[in-house]
């Protein structure tokens, strides 16, 4: 019987010949879409963006990253702009409401500059500053992470991590986790379709909420069993015995990208250090609100 890999597994080539490109969650050949960056470069830029977002105490940085992520999503051949915008909105709007209520209306303290007050609720400059900074950071994090998730797949993630010389175990776990997201989504769709065929009115939200705990419990159990089986299969096939496995796909790479992978972290650390040390001053949220107030 022919020995086939499990669907969604990053297949590690321990030989000298390059394997056929894969990357789809179902194990079929990946659809090649042009990408100017190596997945390792994308991972480095993702980490640098997150460090800048939380390392520099100015809302200008996450706002700039949000604008940059929107521009990249609009021009990327691997990312659907509508899907990316919907994901960011679904995750960011509840956060905006929560932060606006907690920080914007009920910010604690005595020496506060009150802009508007009604009973226990008060809009203060300090509360709005914290809410603005926190929300922009969270939205920027969601935007760049969604951009990477929609523009990548398990094979690209695995290739990027082994190019960065990360342990194969970590690369396998991250790539497998990324491949499980569309797999679980498809399994939930099939499970709801099966319930619908048995007479359940799955078009109603209340019915879906009622059925979802049982479906998710079964899927989590099945996923854990599949992960254990995949790990055993990969070990039998020599996973980890080659210190430098070949990449699953061919990716554009060159001197410019290698310089970018080394230079981006250096520039990021330098910017954070200069900002925290007071050498480079970027306006804080409260300073921007004062400017807007005139």
Summarize the structure.
By secondary structure, the protein is mainly alpha-helical. The protein has 9 helices and 2 strands; from the N terminus they run αααββαααααα.
Q: What distance lies between the first and last C-alpha atoms, to the nearest angstrom?
A: 76 Å
Low-confidence segments: 1-32
Strand content: under 5%
Q: List the strand order in the largest sheet.
A: 1-2
- Report the radius of gyration as a whole number of Å: 23 Å
Spell the H/E element sequence: HHHEEHHHHHH
The tally of beta strands, per DSSP, is: 2
Mean pLDDT: 76
* Class by alpha and beta content: mainly alpha
- Please report the number of helical segments: 9
How would you describe the overall organization of this protein?
With 294 residues, this protein is mostly helical. It is built from nine helices and two strands, in the order H-H-H-E-E-H-H-H-H-H-H.
How are the SSEs placed, and which strands pair?
Blueprint: H1 39-55, H2 60-75, H3 81-105, E1 114-118, E2 121-124, H4 125-151, H5 154-163, H6 168-197, H7 205-236, H8 255-276, H9 285-293
Helix pairs in contact: 1-4, 1-5, 1-8, 2-4, 3-4, 4-9, 5-6, 6-7
């Amino acid at each position: 019987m022919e020995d086939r890999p499990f669907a969604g597994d990053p297949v590690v080539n321990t030989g000298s010949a390059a394997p056929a490109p894969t990357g789809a969650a179902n194990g079929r050949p990946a659809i090649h879409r042009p990408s100017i960056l190596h997945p390792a470069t994308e991972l480095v830029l993702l980490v640098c963006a997150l460090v800048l977002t939380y390392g520099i105490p100015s809302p200008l940085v996450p706002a700039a990253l949000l604008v940059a992520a929107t521009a990249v999503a609009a021009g990327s051949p691997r990312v659907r702009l509508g899907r990316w915008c919907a994901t960011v909105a679904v995750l960011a709007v509840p956060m905006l409401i929560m932060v606006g209520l907690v920080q914007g209306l009920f910010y604690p303290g005595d020496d506060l500059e009150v802009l508007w007050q009604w009973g226990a609720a008060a809009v203060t400059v300090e509360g709005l500053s914290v809410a603005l900074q926190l929300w922009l950071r969270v939205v920027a994090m969601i935007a760049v992470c969604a951009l990477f998730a929609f523009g990548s797949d398990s094979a690209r993630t695995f290739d990027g991590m082994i190019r960065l010389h990360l342990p194969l175990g970590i690369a396998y776990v991250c790539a497998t986790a990324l491949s499980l997201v569309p797999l679980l989504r498809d399994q939930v769709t099939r499970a709801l379709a099966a319930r619908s065929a048995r007479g359940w009115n799955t078009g109603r939200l209340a019915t879906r909420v009622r059925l979802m705990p049982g479906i998710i419990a079964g899927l989590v159990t099945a996923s854990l069993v599949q992960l254990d089986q995949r790990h055993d299969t990969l070990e039998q096939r020599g996973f980890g015995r080659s210190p430098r496995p070949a990449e699953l796909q061919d990716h554009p790479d060159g001197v410019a990208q290698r310089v970018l992978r080394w230079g981006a972290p250096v520039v990021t650390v330098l910017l954070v250090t200069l900002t925290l040390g007071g050498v480079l001053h970027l306006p804080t949220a409260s300073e921007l609100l004062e400017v807007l107030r005139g």
